[in-house]
Design a protein that fits this description.
The complex is a heterodimer of chains A (about 130) and B (about 550). Chain A has about 130 residues and is α/β, with parallel strands linked by helices. Chain A is built from five helices and five strands, in the order E-H-E-H-E-H-E-H-E-H. Chain A is globular. Among the domains of chain B are: about 220 residues, TIM Barrel (Alpha-Beta Barrel); about 50 residues, no CATH class. Chain B contains 20 helices and ten strands. Classes of the chains: A alpha/beta (about 130), B mainly alpha (about 550). At the A-B interface, helix 1, strand 2, helix 2 and helix 3 of A face helix 15 and strand 10 of B.
């Protein structure tokens, strides 16, 4: 199987620990990690198109998940990227988790989810999308 | 010499007998019981004695609080002169909501204030900008114009409560200066502080330079090592990276013609206090000593204010768990003890709901009470440097000092902190991954996460019950209507200001920035006429060729090497 291309972006500058730790862990698992840095949904879609990614990962800390994920899916539809799965990690209130899963987010990662489990779940999402 | 050589010698002999005895006792018991490695990766022994600190010189290494090298405290009488500043980070919704929260915290006995704007994305676009949808008033308070700052400070006595603004932006300083002027406060007497992290950017240096000359009591420079520590680095790196950044900023300001004692006393620290209590106490002591030594010995600073390192502390958050959330109250109290016994000036205790949402009145008031209990009930703040003289803490202090100095020397060999930026970042990330893998493997314990795990734990259930039935807000929920409210506030300013005056002021600002003159005076004028933070960000983008309308620290898209 060809290497999975995973775009990882985040919403704020101060908190970066999870972003880098997950990036490194996925990279070690053979995933090609494209670091988006701090990006708005529109910028994510532009990078996703340009880099032809298999999965989009959005780390949320400050932003309202229900609002930005809603915008992200809207932008993805406009760009014809509906088929690209989205996963989210960070501080995600329970109510938002329910809402964003309903919108189509494939998985939600939380602090202290073991890195091995994050790797497996990302790979599973990528494989399901390719199948 | 604290101990006589013959005492140390006698001790060494007795200690080997003691260690054999301990080994004999432990060898009969299952599992490894020694070999603890501190949170920052330092192997420690089960016992420390005077032999571990035999060469410590009281006057050279410790001395009295308020005296060089300040190991035992910045001020001679510690908390006896001025109590701990209880300062909780506040910021959500519009300036109205945040002003109300400030007043609530003051009513509970907080005695210092802090505000976090909603521009943590680095993007200082206005609240009606498409790029910040979902961010407005979410991770902080929306502060687009001077009008928002006026509302934020409504009923708040700026001369009574020290206010900290968590932002790198000169825009916030300009608004603060206008408020002070309007209230008749002489800038020479104006206090306060902001998170102007020392970095190689004209905005940062303009703020430092302007305040050194015009607002000399305002703490204009900031070493944000707290977030760097959360990013993963060790206690020694927290000290070393902060000192190295201050050295780089000092070099840049000396180049602008200032003397080291003109500004150094207005650079303060933002520090962390985590789970390894004694290591944290030692870190604060070592931090003060390294600061005094570096700036005294290498830069010739003479003003005691320049040599005393002062700190605001916010406790470590990555170990605050969403599982069994009330355990975080206990963690918060223990981490806060490290900060108070380490002699920090100001403290924020994270709320128990840290891993779930922004704090509510309920959770924030518990953070205030935690500090008040430490201050009023335990006696800890009545004795200065209460752990000074502990063989273990003195040994750890020395260890961290030596390690930090060696890291600083390494950074200096690379050409200073501004040139070693990428190296520091990669060190921080490597340390974060090591730390995370310790938790994943269970080598480092975290209750509720990798040990003592409970399915459907009772504390989470208790919180859900509160959420459902309490007559107060038990867990914060962001309401997107707050963004609409802010956009309306912004529209009001846009419609009421004189566009020609804004434009003239904006042009003056651009001219000054392009000519390399200090941006603060023309920015103050522009802010008065209604220039918004987003418009200021566009000015910066134009002058400094910054991408995306203003973020300075943005990692551009890249493939991870």
């Amino acid at each position: 199987m060809e290497r999975i291309r995973f775009l990882l972006s985040r919403d704020d500058w101060y908190h970066q620990r999870g972003y880098w730790v997950v990036a490194k862990a996925l990279s070690e698992a053979g995933v090609e990690v494209i670091l988006g840095g701090i990006q708005t949904p529109r910028e994510i879609v532009q990078t996703a198109l340009h880099e032809d990614v298999d999965v989009i990962g959005y780390r949320l800390m400050d932003a309202s998940p229900q609002v930005v994920i809603g915008i992200l899916f809207q932008e993805m539809r406009q760009a014809g990227l509906e088929g690209v799965p989205v996963v989210v990690g960070g501080i995600i209130p329970e109510k938002d988790e329910t809402l964003i899963r309903e919108m189509g987010v494939k998985d939600v990662f939380r602090p202290f989810d073991p890195l091995d489990s994050i790797k497996e779940r990302v790979l599973a999402v990528a494989r399901a999308a390719r199948a | 010499m604290v101990f006589k050589p013959e005492v140390i010698e006698q001790l060494e002999r007795a200690r080997s007998r003691y260690e054999e005895e301990v080994e004999r006792i432990l060898s009969g018991l299952p599992g490894p019981r020694t070999g603890h490695v501190t949170f920052s990766g330092k192997p420690v022994k089960p016992l420390y004695t005077p032999a571990d600190i035999g060469d410590l010189d009281f006057f050279k290494d410790l001395s009295f609080p308020g005296s060089y090298p300040f190991t035992r405290g910045a001020f001679p009488a510690g908390y006896l002169t001025r109590g701990l500043h209880i300062r909780q980070v506040t910021g959500y919704g519009t300036a109205e909501e945040t002003n109300a929260r400030w007043k609530f915290l003051l009513s509970k006995g907080a005695n210092a204030l802090s505000v976090v704007p909603d521009d943590g994305s680095g993007c200082r676009a206005d609240s009606d900008d498409d790029r910040v949808r979902g961010l407005v008033g979410a991770g902080g308070v929306a502060l687009d114009t001077l009008y928002d700052y006026e509302t934020l400070f409504e009923g708040i006595d700026m001369t009574r409560y020290p206010v900290h603004m968590i932002t790198l932006s000169a825009y916030a300083l300009a608004c603060y200066l206008v408020l002070a002027q309007d209230r008749g406060i002489d800038l020479k007497a104006l206090r306060g502080s902001m998170s102007n992290g020392i970095r190689p950017h004209p905005e940062c240096l303009d703020i430092l330079e302007f305040c050194a000359k015009e607002a000399p009591l305002f703490n204009a420079g900031y070493l944000d090592m707290r977030n760097v520590r959360e990013g993963g680095c060790t206690a020694a790196q927290e000290i070393a990276f902060g000192v190295a950044c201050a050295m780089a900023g000092t070099d840049a300001l000396i180049e602008r013609g200032l003397g080291v004692d003109d500004f150094l006393h207005r650079i303060t620290w933002f520090v962390n206090a985590g789970p390894e209590l004694f290591e944290e106490v030692a870190k604060f002591r070592a931090m003060r000593k390294v600061w005094a030594r570096v700036f005294g010995e290498r830069y010739g600073a003479r003003d005691p204010g320049s040599l005393m390192c002062r700190m605001h502390c916010q406790i470590y958050a990555p170990t605050l768990t969403m599982q069994q959330p009330f355990n975080n109250l206990v963690r918060g109290a223990i981490y806060a003890l490290g900060a108070v016994m380490g002699g920090v000036q100001s403290l924020h205790v994270n709320s128990f709901d840290e891993a779930l949402a922004l704090p509510t009145e309920f959770s924030a008031s518990l953070s205030v009470r935690t500090q008040q209990i430490i201050d009023l009930e335990t006696g800890i703040t009545r004795v200065i440097d209460p752990l000074g003289g502990s063989y273990y803490v003195e040994w750890l202090t020395r260890e961290l000092e030596v390690e930090a100095i060696s890291i600083i020397d390494r950074i200096q060999e690379m050409g200073g902190a501004f040139k070693a930026w990428n190296w520091m970042c990669s060190e921080i990330r490597d340390a974060a991954i090591r730390n995370q893998s310790e938790f994943d493997s269970g080598r480092r314990k975290l209750v509720g996460v990798n040990v003592l795990v409970e399915e459907n734990d009772i504390q989470t259930r208790a919180l859900r019950v509160l959420q459902k039935h309490a007559d107060f807000e038990a867990l914060y929920e962001y309401s997107p209507e707050l963004a609409d409210k802010q956009v309306a506030r912004l529209s009001k300013v846009r419609s009421e200001r004189d566009p020609d005056r804004v434009e003239v002021a904006r042009r003056h600002l651009i001219e000054a920035m392009k000519a390399g003159r200090n941006m603060i005076p023309p920015l103050v004028e522009a802010v008065r006429h209604g220039l918004t933070r987003g418009e200021f960000a566009r000015v910066k983008a134009e002058v400094y060729d910054e991408p995306g309308g203003g973020p300075y620290v943005c990692d551009p898209p890249a493939v991870l090497a």
